[in-house]
Write a structure and sequence with these properties.
It is built from four helices and four strands.
């Protein structure tokens, strides 16, 4: 397993999309990858089926899947990037 926290703090912003691709390649060949971030630039390199987030409700955390959202799927199919949708507050349960 490979884990990284806030990769935007260690890389130039223009390299974050390439970092996501490196993580994806690692996951395909070597195992699981977990990266926590608030970076919309990092999310722009990810596919919806790779994006999960936690929402705290009444003292309990629940996991949400971007690929499970019809709205996010439709907007990405039309060309929107996940990071732009994150910045717009369209990830359910995420307050900006």
């Amino acid at each position: 397993m490979l884990a990284g926290e806030e990769p935007k703090n260690q890389f130039y912003l223009e390299l974050l999309v390439e970092l996501v691709e490196e993580f994806r390649n690692y996951a395909r060949h070597s195992g699981q990858v977990f990266a926590s971030t608030h970076s919309s630039d990092f999310l722009n390199g990810a596919q919806l089926d790779e994006i999960y987030w936690l929402v705290k409700e009444r003292g309990f955390a629940t996991i949400r899947r971007a690929a499970g959202s019809g709205l996010l799927k439709n907007l990405c199919a039309e060309g929107d990037l996940p990071g732009a949708l994150w910045k717009q507050g369209l990830f359910d349960g995420v307050g900006l």
